[in-house]
Design goal:
The chain is an all-alpha fold and 97 residues long. It has three helices and no strands.
Length: 97
C-alpha cells in the first residue's frame, strides 16, 4: 500500500478524539460455502471419470473415449473453479399475510 493511500485510510478512520481505532481481528478470509464444496466435489468426480474414460482410448485417439475424455477432464476442472466462487443461495423473503 502506498504512503498516500495509507494516510488517506488513517484519516478516514480517525475518531473525534484523534485516535486511530485498532483494526478488527479477522480470520484471514471467508470460508467456502456448503454449496460450493458440493460443487467442487462434483467437479472432482467429473474429472476422475474423465481419467477413467481416458484409459479406454486407443493409441491413435480415434474412438469415443479419446473424443469424450478431454471434455470430461476440462469440464471437471471448470466445475471445481466455479465451486470456489459459488455462494449459498439466499433465503427467500418471508411471505406477508
Amino acid at each position: 500500500m502506498s504512503k498516500k493511500k495509507k494516510r488517506q485510510l488513517e484519516a478516514a478512520q480517525k475518531t473525534t478524539g484523534g485516535d486511530v481505532p485498532a483494526p478488527a481481528p479477522s480470520d484471514g478470509g471467508e470460508s467456502l460455502s456448503s454449496t460450493g464444496l458440493k460443487t467442487m466435489a462434483a467437479g472432482v468426480v467429473l474429472a476422475a471419470a474423465g481419467f477413467l474414460v481416458l484409459t479406454r482410448a486407443d493409441s491413435m485417439g480415434r474412438n469415443w473415449a479419446a473424443t469424450l475424455s478431454p471434455f470430461l477432464i476440462l469440464g471437471g476442472y471448470a466445475v471445481v473453479g466455479w465451486g470456489i466462487f459459488r455462494d449459498d443461495p439466499a433465503a427467500p423473503p418471508p411471505s406477508q399475510p
